[in-house]
Amino acid sequence: MTTTPNLALPFIDAAQAQKEVTHNEALILLDALVQGRVKGRHLSAPPAAPAEGEAWIVGPGATGAWTGQSGRIALWQSGWRFLVPRAGWRLWDEQAQRLVTFSGSAWGDLPAEAMQIPTLALGWIGYGSGYASPRYWRDAHGRVSIEGLMQAGSDGTVFTLLAGYRPPARLMFACWSGGGAYRVDVTPAGEVILQGSNAVFSSLAGITFLAAG
C-alpha cells in the first residue's frame, strides 16, 4: 500500500477490497495531526486509561507498550498507534500550554523571534549603569513584550514598532518613572506614546499584548 509523502496517509489502491478500512485509517491520522494536540511530552510509560483520540509525545526511556517509541506520537485509538514525526511538525502541548515543534531529531518549544532594538526619539537614551535599554520581541504565540529603562527625554512617540509587532487596537499601560506612575499607549500603527514620563528615568517594563492577526 502506498502513502502520501507528508503525513503518510494511505492511498486507496485500484480494485482494492474493503476500501473503507483504508479510508478510515486516513481519517484517524488526519484527526490526530491536523490542528493536532497532545496531552504532554514527558511521559515515558503509557497511561492506564487513555480516552479515544488522546495522544502523547513519548518521553525518553519509554517502557511498557511504548518501549522503543521515544519521540514518536502515541495515539490511542482502540489500541496504541505510533506516528513518526517529520521536521517542522507542530503540536499543541496541553500540559505546557504551548506549541511544540519537531526539529528532525527532537521536540522543543517554538523559538521566540529575535530581539528588536528600536531607535529612540525625543531625546531619550538608554539609562545605562547595567540596565537594559528599550527593546521588544514577540514569542511563538504572537505575544509582544516591551521592556527597558531610558532617560533624558520628553513625552510623545518614543519609537515605532515594526509591522507584525503591533496591537489590533490602541492599548494603554501604566509604567513607572522617576516621578511615579506614567502612561504609555501603543497604537495599531506601532507608535509607543509616552504621557507623564520623567527624564530622570522612565521604564517600559510590563508592556505586553497579542499582536494583530
UniProtKB/TrEMBL annotation:
It comes from Alteraurantiacibacter lauratis. The lineage of its organism: Bacteria, Pseudomonadati, Pseudomonadota, Alphaproteobacteria, Sphingomonadales. It comes from the Bacteria. Pfam families: DUF2793. This is DUF2793 domain-containing protein.
